[in-house]
Here is the input.
Amino acid sequence: MIDILKRITREPLGFFGLVLVTLIVASAILASVISPYDPVALNIVDRLQGPSARHLLGTDQLGRDLFSRVLFGGQVALKVALVSISAALGTGVLLGMLAGFGPKWLDHIIMLFFDTIRSFPTVMFALATVALVGPSLGTVIAVIIVTSIPNYGRVVRTQTLAIKSNQFILAERAMGVSTRRILFVHILPNVIGPLIILASMDIPTVIALEAGLSFLGMGVKPPTPSWGSILNDGYTLIRNTPWPIIAGSIPLLLITLGFTFLGESLRDLIDPKLRKGI
Amino acid sequence: MNTVLEVENARVRFRSMSSVQAWIKRESDPWIDAVRDVSLSIKEGETFTLVGESGSGKSTLAMAVAGLLPASEGSIRFRGQEVTTMNGAGMMAYRKQISFMWQNPVGSLSPRQNVGALVTEPYIVHGLTERNLREESARLLKMVGLPEHFSARYPHQLSGGQARRVGVARALALSPRMIIADEPTAGLDVSVQGEILNLLNRLQDELGISMFVITHNLNIVRHISDRTAIMYLGRFVEQGPTDDIFSHPRHPYTLALLSANPEPDPDANIERIELKGEVPSLMDRPSGCEFHTRCPFAAENCAHDFPPIHVVNENHALTCHYPR
Amino acid sequence: MNENVLTIRDLSVHYGTSRGELKALRHVNLDVPKGAIVGVVGESGCGKSTLISSIIRLLAENASIPNGTIEFRNTDLLKLPEEDMRAIRGNQMSVVFQDPMSTLNPVLSIGRQMTDIQYRDKKSRSEKNRRSIEMLTSVGIPDPASRLKQFPHEFSGGMQQRISIAMALQAEPSFLIADEPTTALDATLEVQIIHLLKELQANIGCSILFVSHHLGVIAELCDYVVLMYAGEVVEQGTVAGVFHNPAHPYTEHLLKCDPASISTKSRTLPTIPGEIPDLVTLPSGCIFKNRCEYVMTRCDTEVPEWSERSVGHFASCHRSLS
Here is the structure.
């Protein structure tokens, strides 16, 4: 693990990605310490200000400090990303391994489930869910989990099918190893590498999805700050001031760049086919 | 000496088409026999070698013996217990007494497990966790001639010979009564082949394990084996003491196999029996003697009549109309 | 003047790895006389595949050639522009690989693949087809005209290898490289393929570089033999000369080790103790010293010279010189 981190820092883009990701994660975790204002405190007198020494990114239409809101919005974004991606990854891996290793009928059922989910456009699916159960952070997370499971599940299934035919699986079976042990001790470590990369590259997508849903008013409820709701507020005020839009976009841009660079250099490092030399 | 393994008229078959397909095509027999009417017995501490070309069914037979494939007919008894009808618990107990050495030395080791974990896995699987696994791993590695620090290595960091030794260590972990070795020298260099065979011979002499060896490499057979059977299209065509088979091969196919073996001597003038054509498909077995399509000595009745069992002596028998 | 089809002199190939330069081939000399079959023997990691890749100039990206020449019909292949090299490959020089299933394209019919490789010839399709049938007949495939429509998986392993050979010899090259062509085959088929190669070689008159680790096959098929160990050619000579009077201790060991050469039953087979040295950090002196039973003090410091022992029989060892 440390070895991989060391090798990432040797590549300029990977290093840049790692720095960005570390910065954003640290600032979100330390939001309550470093943010100069309460993100939900109203200050009507100072509303719609541009950047200044007092308000680094200006204020919104209710005079809330945008810099503080961005920091706290990061908490929401990361919470959504980490919770939903780890849950989707876990479920996807489990279902994928069962589909790949289990009997054919189970494979058919799981694949049918995957295909059903994938046949809905994600945003439509989200809108429908929100219309049914109402907007909340939990809904957003649930929607993201359900729609990302097939992405991971399909990759795991294909990998499992390939590994299943290897001689070592037969060797383990001949020794009397249980199916559960084969799945978790012998197959899982062989499929998890590429998935971690896939997941790290999915983080910005998920954050953007959360922002998008919040922008549409389907996600986080006000006054909780979220990058999407900052953008939404800014959108209505675009004729008055560009600063809320800019404040909401900058972290999205940075985190997308950060995780993409990190994910790509991780992939280059872990994928032996792309690795140079013998 | 006690008999460890006894196989009687075993038949192993695979579906050639699904039952629906068979029904549509009105095929009454949607099966192909990979192993047909095979009988053998292995005594304690004895090495039995099965020789045959690829597709002759030798690995299938080994899998059936190990209980990994069902035998549709006949019986397979291990120390008096019927393998074909074993339940889960019986099978688990059986797995403790036999172990496998797989054809691919590196590919049969789980790639993300280190050597230490690999050689001690049998203990974990069979619930023998009260043992000190670190000590057991050191003991097993020493037994197969690998230094202790190898326990931290991963399969891809091993050479073919080293991986083979790890495979032997794994096979020995539970002190089995019998080891089934599928091509134990496949993928190994000549100099390493010798090392592995010497190791197996030594361990067998020390531990009294029975060995069931499958190979197509005739060169090694005479140095390791007590009894040999030659397999063709899923049947034994000749079976007998290894020394007899090498000195007086009787079946034309045995003769051809033995003479097909190029000798590392440029002046060697081998009287070679070259076979015609290719191995027929299992889906379409030849009539009469199944070897007649390739046999250089085939006469007219070979194409019609199934050959009788020709008994040379109580240990040596073959199926041929015209034994040499 | 030069009667060799291929002459390799002082060839070294290194691979750049994260641990440093891996010296896969070092100062290799090799001759393939016109119309001869030369066997290359060596165990895994001895540089056989690197040797083949450098002759056909398809080395991995991280390979470099610090010194040496590969002369093919009096032109140095290493100095040739890529375009000229491509004209040589498949036309004057071709390769038969170990695994026929992975060299034949699984989704194209045999006939299509065999006409495709005749793209250089300005002939009509039916003429090319006729040529394909002719080639399949020559490698002993029954009923070739109808089998042209079939796909690789419809042929057995032995048949696939025959087809690969037919394709390699289609342009009647003057030089054929056979990279362990019989390793994937069973013993009875191996014999068939060896005889086929010998017969075709006599008909076409090409030279063959036959790479194998099977000493018996080399003894039966080849005129000359080259022994490689850990990236060096340690001995070269006629098959009879080398097999009867091995000059290098490695050759001697290897011949002794082959279980085929031991006809009496033995429970302990001879082995070569020790391991191949690391090719990144090479030891000084002789490469085989750590496994040699005749090791002397000078083996530790001096690299043995490549010297002629008897006419046409070369080896690099200090022993028989002193």
In short: The radius of gyration of chain A is 22 Å. Chain A is about 75% helix and 0% strand. Residues 272-278 of chain A have pLDDT under 50 and may be disordered.
